[in-house]
């Protein structure tokens, strides 16, 4: 049977999709509009259209259809496996690759490639995220740890939670940062303006990012960052917040930016305690070619 959500309109005014979008934090406006279009939204038993203007006391019923099952297909994506043993895999993800399947990305994801190349993956997460302990954004390149069994998954996830794992990133940002080091502590949550974005908001989750300047160019700075927390889009949001957005970032950066394959952000170093041996393992991945080429061009310009 379909899931149902009931919303009673209080003092809100305006279009039904806008009002529902403000009330239902877990769903996007486009998702709500899709439900209205597919006639899953009714008021007092009558199916309504997207331009319906709400009135105080309206009882809105949303019948959420069962999600379409994603068919997880192993694909030969020739993933760059940096390390593998019986418990863990370390993979260097290219820019442009989504970590796990979703409605908009059913194939070509890191998980599809892992299913082809790795025999066993942990089952702790839902069916579309086997082995996935943590994520990086589609257009961020670099290192990810993957668990091959549930015991390893729990151990690695605990290290992330306890902040004992090591994660360092390299980013090229707009502007010339005057100081050598910085610590950004600002809570992050879903943007109230654009639901596809995250933002620094008062009632967000705690987020801490450390950075250090590696090199300055005319109009840009190359920095190394270390995460204390792992919020969605954390580096991108924090750097925009302090006025030095990541170059090439289509969501948080300026329109006039460096051409690449998305943001110039690379997860270059990953360290964790091995779930079985207890040994501290540290891996490093070189910058993607487009990143190196862009830095060379900036050097030549200086």
TrEMBL record:
<protein>
    <recommendedName>
        <fullName>Pseudouridine synthase</fullName>
        <ecNumber>5.4.99.-</ecNumber>
    </recommendedName>
</protein>
<keyword id="KW-0694">RNA-binding</keyword>
<dbReference type="GO" id="GO:0000455">
    <property type="term" value="P:enzyme-directed rRNA pseudouridine synthesis"/>
</dbReference>
<dbReference type="Pfam" id="PF01479">
    <property type="entry name" value="S4"/>
</dbReference>
<dbReference type="InterPro" id="IPR006224">
    <property type="entry name" value="PsdUridine_synth_RluA-like_CS"/>
</dbReference>
<dbReference type="InterPro" id="IPR006145">
    <property type="entry name" value="PsdUridine_synth_RsuA/RluA"/>
</dbReference>
<dbReference type="InterPro" id="IPR050188">
    <property type="entry name" value="RluA_PseudoU_synthase"/>
</dbReference>
<feature type="domain" description="RNA-binding S4">
    <location>
        <begin position="14"/>
        <end position="78"/>
    </location>
</feature>
<comment type="function">
    <text>Responsible for synthesis of pseudouridine from uracil.</text>
</comment>
<dbReference type="GO" id="GO:0120159">
    <property type="term" value="F:rRNA pseudouridine synthase activity"/>
</dbReference>
<comment type="similarity">
    <text>Belongs to the pseudouridine synthase RluA family.</text>
</comment>
<dbReference type="InterPro" id="IPR020103">
    <property type="entry name" value="PsdUridine_synth_cat_dom_sf"/>
</dbReference>
<feature type="active site">
    <location>
        <position position="137"/>
    </location>
</feature>
<keyword id="KW-0413">Isomerase</keyword>
<dbReference type="InterPro" id="IPR036986">
    <property type="entry name" value="S4_RNA-bd_sf"/>
</dbReference>
<dbReference type="InterPro" id="IPR006225">
    <property type="entry name" value="PsdUridine_synth_RluC/D"/>
</dbReference>
<dbReference type="InterPro" id="IPR002942">
    <property type="entry name" value="S4_RNA-bd"/>
</dbReference>
<dbReference type="Pfam" id="PF00849">
    <property type="entry name" value="PseudoU_synth_2"/>
</dbReference>
<dbReference type="GO" id="GO:0003723">
    <property type="term" value="F:RNA binding"/>
</dbReference>
